[in-house]
Specification:
single chain; mainly beta; 39% strand
């Protein structure tokens, strides 16, 4: 038996542990979050993807919308039309409309301190009517297993809403940078958190879309063409997705889905498949509203791919997913729906090739109080299982939060008001010459966590990048600076060990009784000792904790003490790992202290750049660092790596006193030099796989002053502030910054890192599962609050954060206090007795001709090809849905 837990980050560090006494080596596995493609979602989430379709047709499904090759364009006078934010079968209980909107809770609600209305006189209160806290809309959706097929629909419209097509009507073809992570709600790996570990920094990643949005006048439909490039086509070569949308009416109170038809197809260059210069279709589909006799909101969806396309080349997957959904009114108080998904796949598993087939259909009926889903697994239109759920009893999961300033204050040197959204300068887009021909032909993003480029590579040190100033319509040039590593400052948080009773940590090292190395899950027991409670293995979705383990040959014992046997071997120090606390956790055993006075240390951290005033005061360019543990040698060569028996051979042997290093900055870059041999500490050009360190290598903690008591060098690990130098051959092993024309380093805001103690009063669902549990939360800007571990929904492929914060929860760091508010949240209805759904007839959907599921003949054609993609020069006009140069 096992359970799976996943940290909220795209790169999951496994553990940090001690491989032999006296030497700590960084062990890290990088599980990269894969870039989403529509093809991959529909085929690889096999079982989490189907379709929802139906409702008020803009054009007959399957038809080609007419186009005017030369429409008169008037961007100033013509208004754009918006698609829905999402497609829901039924409305959220808090909202009153499908995919509804909620306002913040009033003071006094759960988790909302009554003192939040702060300020007198001219000062704002948090909940004043015109504050960001009061006016920002939170979108609320409803999820149910029977509606999982709609998830891909909602991802599609989420992406399209990031293109700003309604705001960019008649402005000509343009580039939009789309953040895919924002739209993958419930997908494994979950999105917006961070462990706080620097090597797991979530550098922004985008997909570069080309869009052309046109509308002749305010009485004409809006026509949108989209080219989605460079998606990975499951071994088929680079797949591109072509999308064509005809919008007759935008979203309104009367028409919650508007009226539109959206057709899409995936294509691959046939040359890569040996089929010549042709576009090979890999998938296609249609999402459209449908007109019905009663004038009720209705939409339907059909998508097919892989072997389901008769004309496609051989593929190892196939699917045909469909849905038809009709609401009884615009508010979505009641309705009927049908969904179906047929999927097949061939995969390489541990035992060889594995084949699978899935067929699942749902008929759905609901009213204002109850929701009935009828599942048909064998395709005979008869229920194999019926489940009744309550629409007014639900659990809430939040995908994105905002933080707001709790009171008038100064935040990072600038004044802020109560209720104002916490904004961070997290990065900027740029263009650059990727081909070396003098033409800025590619895009990228440079931010606090690093760099993203279309090619996946890193511009060379000193290369010019071009930032577009949207306020002045000018281009500003910067020089990229690539340091041979990166320096991390860590600030220690000390908490009593007794506060962590029952909490678990990951540990790498020898088992105390089995005397075998491994990865283990350990817990703090009531006696303030550490107990191994399970082994830990890594699966495709993260760590697996194996509950069944015989620790000492005696099946009657279920745990074994760590401290008594391991602490003396490890110099009285245990290095552990905790997703909840942001990475490394250190316990230094002090026998002179009573157990109740002993402490655990965890760390907030930030990157150090050449503009750091603490290390480089005005007029200085270097500083001393003192190392006591894992003191990495300078001047290493590939020959040194080849001769090493293990990573420890790349470190100095500790001789009882600190080794001195020189930290210096030059030309916008930071360097570390080993004073012992005078060599630069750098491994950027070295292959480290032969010593088991392909992810890079780092020093231990270093200090700017000597320890007061050098006879206890292990206490370096829990000093109030320390530094660590990381280096290696990967993009995450180096610090990438930019300097302007006068050599000043561009400074980005570091994410907020806020210690937080959870309580049931702060839980949106009232759960006490994590009562008094400590977390180190990280906030990277609007919508990007993370730090809670993610858990899997039973046997499904959906994941969610283990903790859901209520609106109004107060978070505080050493300088400021903030208030949490959900930006996107989902309700999951709770099961009730089947008898409570008497009067609802889900099977009636099977006999309703207007709810017939669409088929291949209902898929509309896309009227353009990949070769029609326009060449677009200049900066991205839209980033994550925000039109650049315009106020949000």
């Amino acid at each position: 038996m096992s359970r799976t837990l996943r940290a909220t980050t795209g790169i999951v560090p496994t553990v940090r542990g001690q491989l032999r006494p006296g030497l700590w080596i960084v062990i890290q596995e990088n599980i990269m979050s894969s870039r989403f493609t529509w093809l991959a979602v529909i085929t690889l989430c096999v079982g989490g993807c189907g379709g929802g379709g139906g409702g008020g047709d803009a054009a007959p499904t399957g038809s080609n919308p007419p186009t005017d090759p030369n429409p008169p364009l008037n961007a100033a006078a013509v208004a754009g039309l918006n698609l829905p934010e999402s497609f829901s079968v039924l409305s959220a209980a808090e909202a009153g409309a499908a995919g509804g909107v909620s306002k913040p809770r009033a003071p006094g609600a759960k988790g909302f301190a009554s003192t939040l209305a702060i300020g007198t006189g001219a000062h704002k209160a948090l909940n004043d009517a015109d504050t960001d806290y009061s006016t920002d809309e939170a979108h609320v959706y409803v999820h149910d297993q029977s509606m999982e097929g709609l998830s891909v629909i909602n991802e599609i419209v989420c992406y399209i809403n990031q293109t700003g097509a309604a705001q960019m009507v008649n402005r000509g073809p343009y580039v939009a940078l789309v953040n895919e992570d924002r739209c993958q709600q419930g997908r494994n790996g979950g999105a917006n958190g961070a462990t706080g570990e620097s090597t797991a920094g979530d550098a922004a990643e985008f997909s570069r879309w080309i869009i052309d949005s046109e509308r002749t006048d305010n009485d004409s439909p809006q026509l949108v063409r989209l080219w989605v490039p460079d998606a990975e086509g499951e071994g088929l070569g680079e797949q591109s997705i072509l999308v064509e949308i005809r919008v007759e009416d935008g979203v309104s109170e009367a028409e919650p889905f508007g009226r539109f038809a959206l057709n899409f197809r995936g294509v691959v260059d046939g040359t890569a498949l040996g089929l010549g210069d042709v576009e090979v279709e890999t998938m296609r589909g249609t999402l459209a509203t449908v007109d019905n006799a009663a004038g009720r909101p209705q939409f339907r969806f059909i998508s097919m791919g892989g072997t389901a396309l008769q004309s496609a080349p051989p593929m190892d997957f196939g699917y045909e997913n469909a849905a038809n959904v009709r609401l009884d009114d615009a508010a979505g108080a009641s309705g009927l729906a049908l969904t179906r998904r047929d999927e097949s796949w061939i995969r390489q598993g541990p035992g060889g090739e594995e084949q699978g087939v899935r067929h699942e259909s749902f008929a759905i009926a609901y009213n204002s109080a109850r929701f009935l889903s009828s599942r048909d697994d064998d395709g005979d239109a008869l229920a194999d299982e019926e489940v009744c759920r309550a629409r007014d009893e639900f659990d809430v999961r939040v995908w994105r939060y905002n933080l707001y300033h709790r009171e008038d204050a100064e935040f990072r040197g600038r004044p802020v008001e109560a209720g104002q959204r916490v904004e961070l300068n997290s990065g900027f887009p740029f263009s650059y010459d990727s081909a070396g021909d003098g033409v800025a032909n590619a895009y990228g993003w440079l931010g606090y966590h690093g760099i993203w480029t279309e090619s996946g590579g890193i511009p060379a040190d000193g290369q010019t990048i071009h930032r577009f100033d949207y306020d002045t319509d000018a281009t500003v040039d910067y020089s990229v600076r690539v340091a041979p590593g990166r320096l991390v400052r860590r600030v220690a948080n000390h908490e009593l060990l007794s506060a962590f009773v029952g909490d678990t940590f990951q540990f790498w090292g020898p088992h105390p009784s089995l005397e075998t190395p491994g990865q283990w899950l350990i817990a703090v027991d009531q006696n303030l000792d550490f107990q191994i409670i399970s082994a830990l293995e890594w699966g495709d979705n993260g760590p697996l904790f194996l509950d069944a383990i015989d620790h000492d040959g005696d099946p009657q014992t279920s745990a074994v003490s760590v401290a008594a046997t391991l602490l003396p071997v490890h110099n009285e120090v245990l290095w552990m790992w905790s997703e909840a606390l942001g990475g490394n956790v250190v316990y230094t055993h002090d026998a002179s202290l009573a157990a109740q006075d002993r402490r655990i240390v965890f760390f907030a951290q930030e990157f150090v750049t050449a503009s750091d005033a603490a290390l480089f005061p005005a007029g200085t360019t270097d500083a001393a660092l003192y190392c006591y543990d894992r003191c990495l040698k300078g001047g290493l060569s590939q020959a040194d790596v080849a001769a090493a028996q293990g990573p420890w051979d790349l470190y100095h042997s500790y001789q009882g006193t600190a080794l001195r290093y020189t930290l210096s900055m030059e030309d916008g870059k930071v360097f570390v030099t080993d004073d012992t041999n005078g060599g630069l500490v750098a491994a950027t050009e070295l292959a480290l796989a032969s010593i088991g360190q392909p992810w890079g290598i780092s020093t231990g903690e270093m200090l700017t002053d000597l320890l007061a008591d050098e006879s206890r060098p292990w206490t370096v690990n829990d000093q109030p502030m320390s530094y660590r130098w990381e280096t290696g051959p990967n993009a995450w092993n180096v610090m990438i910054t930019a300097t302007d024309a006068i050599g000043q380093t561009v400074v980005f805001d570091r994410p907020l890192q806020v210690p937080y103690i959870h309580s049931s009063a702060n839980d949106a669902n009232g759960s006490d599962e994590f009562q008094d549990r400590r977390f180190l939360l990280q906030y990277g800007g609007p919508g990007n609050l993370g730090g809670f571990p993610w858990v899997q929904d039973g046997d499904s492929d959906r994941w969610h954060a283990a903790v859901t914060l209520a609106d109004g929860v107060v978070l505080a760091d050493n300088s400021n206090s903030f208030v949490v508010r959900a930006l996107e949240k989902e309700q999951s209805m709770r099961d009730v007795d089947l008898a409570d759904c008497d009067g609802l007839d889900a099977d009636a959907a099977y006999g309703d001709p207007s709810l017939a599921l669409p088929g291949v003949d209902d898929i509309g054609a896309v009227s353009f090809t990949l070769a029609d993609r326009p060449q677009v020069d200049g900066a991205p006009a839209v980033i994550e849905g925000q039109v650049q140069g315009e106020s949000p």
